[in-house]
Amino acid sequence: MAADSQSIIAPTDAELLQAQADLWRHSLYYLTSMALKCAVELHIPTAIHNLGGAASLQDLASLHLSGAEVETYRLNPLSWLLVEGMEAEDHTYQKYFVLGTVSRHYVEAALSLADWFKKDLPAPLPSPFEELHGVPLLHETTKLLDEELDRIVIEGVAAHDNLAIGTIIRECGDLFKGLQTLTDCGGGDGTTVRGIIKAFPDIKCTVLDLPNVIETAPAHDSVNYVAGDMFQSIPPAQAVMLKLVLHFWNDEDCVKILEQCRKAIPSKEEGGKVIIIDIVLGHSMGPIMYEAQLLMDMLMMVNTRGRQRDENDWREIFSKAGFSDYKIVKKIGARGIIEVYP
Ligand SMILES: C[S@@+](CC[C@H](N)C(=O)[O-])C[C@H]1O[C@@H](n2cnc3c(N)ncnc32)[C@H](O)[C@@H]1O
User: Fold this and answer.
1) What is the greatest pairwise CA distance in the chain?
2) Cα of 207 from ligand 1 centre, angstroms
3) Which of 24, 77, 222, 339 has the most CB atoms around its CB within 10 Å?
4) Gap from CA of 66 to ligand 1 centroid (Å)
């Protein structure tokens, strides 16, 4: 029911001043992205790294920045992720994630959001990106839209996905302890399982992915690569892992994928489980992480048919796919690690 105008209490002066500042922040957040894009395109983090980890504005003048200040700038953890050619274990260069998210095609798709909401589009619902540009993202046809965008997005997703496996093994090693076999479903070029095999050499690992991905995966003595379709069948193993796969799919598709996972694993008593590594939306990691998770949810809504999920959403799809129980093992940064039992 609409509020009665008599009962509306006007905000206080302090509330209005805060509201105005909030309005500025929400209207201007895109400038943060654009400033980041500018720093990446000027190679500023790499330049600071090459100058020994600290640089003055004069040092950076060769990047066409000028200034008389002698303040020095050091790499913070965010700029560490943007240093090219860093020789450090676990270092994944995130430049292409940034360039993809601030690309003209992503921004135009986000600008079309209101039009997309007003359209009565048939199921399966295309994303605003697909509706506007005529091709889905991360699809064999994306390169017909723009080859450079396609390359940037593929590299950006690979860098994004490979960031946390070292941390996961260090903080949640029990996840893999005692496993004899593991299938990494949608495991890409096998980077994740190579990390797991390094820590747990006795686990026999299989990577399932689409034929075009498997074709270019680097050969590895201990990795069994299988080209296939996770909607059709998944190579059997004691555990099947879905790392950053399900957020790309809608709920119906997630249930179909999970049903295939259930067929591929033994009973709970025999150690059968599905390991899911994906965002679990929620406040528990603090407001900044929650904001990051919600922005990733919007990124999915604008550019893919998928979404991020909170614990209730996850529970519902596990139950629909016929699983009996699950456990959120740990939350690492913005992501959660879930074990799901048949
Ligand atoms: C976002 S990537 C995640 C890659 C990997 N799990 C990681 O964490 O680095 C999703 C992966 O699912 C794969 N994929 C998409 N559709 C698939 C299908 N029908 N069957 C098997 N793999 C598929 C993609 O090729 C891609 O490698």
Assistant:
1) 75
2) 10
3) 339
4) 45
Q: Where are the domains of the chain?
A: 20-80, 99-151, 164-341
Active site residue 247: yes
Looking at the domain 164-341, which fold is it?
Rossmann fold (3.40.50)
pLDDT, tens digit (0-9, with 9 covering 90-100), for 150-174: 999 988 888 877 777 888 888 888 9
For ligand 1, say whether the CB of 245 is within 6 Å of any of its atoms: yes
| pTM score, whole prediction | 0.86
Q: Is 162 in the pocket of ligand 1 (CB under 6 A)?
A: yes
DSSP state letter for 178: T
Answer yes or no: is the C-beta of 169 below 6 A from any ligand 1 atom: no
- ipTM of this predicted structure: 0.99
Q: Which of 208, 245, 249, 253 to mutate to test the pocket of ligand 1 (most atoms within 8 A of CB)?
A: 245
pLDDT 10s digits, 95-149: 998 999 999 999 999 999 999 988 989 888 899 999 999 999 988 899 999 999 9
pLDDT, tens digit, 9 for 90 and up, residues 207-262: 999 998 898 888 888 899 999 999 999 999 999 999 999 999 999 999 999 999 99
Alpha helix segments (H runs only) across the chain: 13-41, 44-50, 77-80, 95-101, 104-111, 113-118, 128-133, 142-145, 147-161, 165-171, 191-199, 211-215, 251-264, 287-303, 311-320
Residue reference for tokens 């950053």: 244
